[in-house]
Write a structure and sequence with these properties.
This protein is of the alpha/beta class and 257 residues long. It has one domain: Rossmann fold. The chain contains nine helices and six strands.
Length: 257
């Protein structure tokens, strides 16, 4: 997502809660891949934990100081079932067997983190009468899957946050939508030792870029409180039609104006 936004011309700040190696690698890849591009944006990496109110405010402050304003927030930071058990795909952990400290950490990151980041950026977006908040979600089936607590409940809460925030911000020019890959995706949330034949069936993270770019564009000015499934996006269609095909129709769109 960071690389896709940068290729589209956006200046991007990416964060990591602990080690900087991943965000530094993304920033380096952005420089390499954008060599010769006229509109390529800058990618900056910052160490920050979304569960810290102070870290969130610092990230927003540094972004505004360097780039002048903030137009887009992608709430992608998340902690998953690997913190409960490395074998979560094969041997589900019952909810009462989960370490309470791990439960709190996952909920704090996946529910409170998006709130703290959105709370930090919204005042800037309201002043400019334009902004995009994208909450990265997951399939409803995974939210209800046995052995997937607290990850499933945390993302269900994020879906509720999305719809409520969209209503709170209706008419301001700031929209809030959720975006999900549409299946198990080849990211760091998947165990390293997963069988090769299983890994080959995983979705590529790149599928989320096209619907993300549409949601943050002016074409989506009137779309808020919606839920888009990236695996249903058809790039052969015009963007508006692709978005309609990818939209979860069980979710009602909140009028933005």
């Amino acid at each position: 997502m960071a690389l896709g936004l940068a290729r589209a011309g956006a200046n991007v700040v990416i964060t990591a809660a602990r080690g900087r190696h991943e965000i530094e690698a993304v920033a380096d890849e952005a420089k390499t891949s954008q060599a010769g591009l006229v509109r390529g944006g800058i990618v900056r990496g910052l160490t920050a934990d979304v569960t810290s109110e102070g870290d969130g405010l610092r990230v927003v402050s540094e972004a505004v100081r360097e780039f002048g304003s903030i137009h887009i927030l992608v709430n992608n930071a998340g902690r998953g079932m690997r913190f409960v058990s490395e074998n979560f795909l094969d041997t589900p952990t019952k909810f009462w067997q989960t370490d309470p400290a791990v439960w709190r950490m996952i909920v704090d990151t996946n529910v409170n983190g998006p709130f703290l980041m959105a709370r930090a950026v919204v005042p800037h977006m309201l002043k400019q009468h334009w902004g995009r908040i994208i909450n990265i979600s997951m399939n409803y089936e995974t939210m209800r899957r046995g052995g997937f607590a607290p990850y499933g409940p945390s993302k269900a809460a994020l879906e509720s946050e999305t719809v409520i925030w969209a209503q709170d911000l209706a008419g301001t020019g700031v929209t809030v939508n959720s975006l999900l890959p549409g299946g198990v995706t080849d990211t760091g949330m998947v165990p390293d030792d997963i069988a090769p034949e299983v890994r080959r069936r995983l979705l590529s993270p790149e599928i989320i870029v096209h619907p993300l770019l549409w949601l943050v564009s002016e074409m989506a000015d009137d779309v808020t409180g919606a839920r888009l499934v990236a695996s249903l996006w058809d790039s052969s269609l015009p963007p508006a039609q692709a978005a309609e095909k990818a939209r979860d129709t069980s979710v009602s769109i909140v009028p933005a104006r």
